[in-house]
Write a structure and sequence with these properties.
Length: about 120
């Protein structure tokens, strides 16, 4: 059962990467595109790091098929936090901290309900 859920979760993550690919976004007609502000360099860095974190999560889930996707995401978030606090400069810290926060708050949050409780 765990492997089937992991497979579906990886499929969802890959679809997210496809939908947020800059080439894909540029190809969408303006009629269907939401009006967005021009991203700042900080926003661009955040989006890039989040896409990288998802790629790392996909790799980790596929490498550990017997573990649940949630457990794998939790372990990856902890690894990113460890790397952030072991960083030798502020840029490394920022990259790993963005990745850790994204996996911890957004991805793991998918497994919880609105009150932060597991169903």
């Amino acid at each position: 059962m765990c492997e089937n859920f992991n497979r579906v979760f990886v499929y969802m993550l890959r679809e997210f990467l496809k939908q947020t690919d800059p080439k894909t976004i540029r190809g969408v007609s303006k009629e269907r595109m939401l009006i967005q502000k021009k991203p700042t360099p900080t926003d661009f860095q955040k989006y890039s790091v989040q896409r990288w974190a998802i790629s790392e999560l996909i790799t980790a889930i596929l490498a550990n098929p017997c573990n649940s996707a949630e457990d794998t995401a939790y372990r990856l978030a902890l690894t990113f936090y460890k790397c952030a606090y072991a960083a030798v400069d502020s840029r490394m810290y920022e990259v790993f901290h963005i990745a850790a926060e994204f996996v911890d708050k957004e991805v793991i949050g998918l497994f919880r309900n609105n009150q932060g409780i597991y169903p």
